[in-house]
Amino acid sequence: MAPDWTWSRFGGLGVDNLYDALALRCRVFVLEQGPYLDPDGLDRQAWHLLGRDGQGVLQAYLRVVDPGVKYAEPSIGRVITSPEARGTGLGRRLVAEGVARCAAAWPGQGIRISAQSHLERFYAAFGFARTGADYLEDDIPHCEMLRPREQEQP
To answer: Is residue 152 part of a domain?
Structure first.
């Protein structure tokens, strides 16, 4: 079953969507991966993509930080699926949807991510390529990756 997608600016999320997004992010990024401050000041300058199942439960989330805020390009981050949805292909649908939303919002621009290094092959399937060496972010190895801007067809 395809998720019900919501694409919204921070101010348009509403308290229920905001609460659900932060709760899912906390559940995975803080409880599973180790303590760190998840609200990093970038949520207000981003689009938020939420994927809910047929019962309305949030199963997938990512945010896209505006170009010029974190990187010159729009930046996909906080990519997450609920533990119950892992292994179902929802993560692939989430990233594909995020890339499509970026292409619609910023036509012709590349997309940059800070990916956990063990997910490099996953993101490479969406056209992202590593741009540098590994670095630690919150004690987890990461690598910067760029999906080049779409080339116009001749």
So the answer is: no
Q: Note the pLDDT tens digit of each residue in 72-131.
A: 999 999 999 999 999 999 999 999 999 999 999 999 999 999 999 999 999 999 999 999
Domain of residue 16 covers: 4-107
Answer yes or no: are the C-beta atoms of 104 and 113 closer than 8 Å: no
Phi then psi dihedrals of residue 142, to 5 deg: -130, 165
CB-based burial label for 145 (10 Å; 0-12, 13-18, 19+): buried
Q: What are phi and psi of 24, to 5 degrees?
A: -65, -45
Model confidence, pTM: 0.93
For residue 27, what is the domain's CATH number? 3.40.630.30
The structural domain count of the chain equals: 1
